[in-house]
Amino acid sequence: MAEAKLASLFEPGKPMPRAAVVGAMRQEVSELKAKLAAMMSGSSADAVLGARSETDDELADRARQAFLEVERLLGHKSGGTHAMDDAGAIAVLEAENERLRLEATALLLRQQQLEELVEKHNLC
Questions:
Q1: Which tens digits make up the pLDDT trace of 75-111?
Q2: For the whole model, what pTM was predicted?
Q3: Long-range contacts of 72-79 (CB under 8 A, 24+ apart)
Q4: How many domains does the chain contain in total?
């Protein structure tokens, strides 16, 4: 809802909004995205290294829960506009992208550690 409200300020034919208003709304959107990203990513890449792999069902459930949380945070109502649906979906995708980026970084670090062990013990 916050993203849709922000986008509506720039519709054709409307006077340009004040910078302070736009800044405050962008800050709100950023805070919501950061909160969602934190929920989706867990704590850090270190947590991904130590954690067991999640099954597809567990990942799907977490994604569904995150989407429901985004809907709640954005004040989504059934039958709302497509802009709100899109904004919520984009927020979920951005959070999932951040989680996957952290996981990929952790996997690359682990791969590097394993390659160093192989080299150290001449296992090639």
A1: 644 445 556 667 777 888 888 888 899 999 999 999 9
A2: 0.34
A3: 73/32, 73/35, 73/36, 74/1, 74/2, 74/3, 74/32, 75/1, 76/1
A4: 1
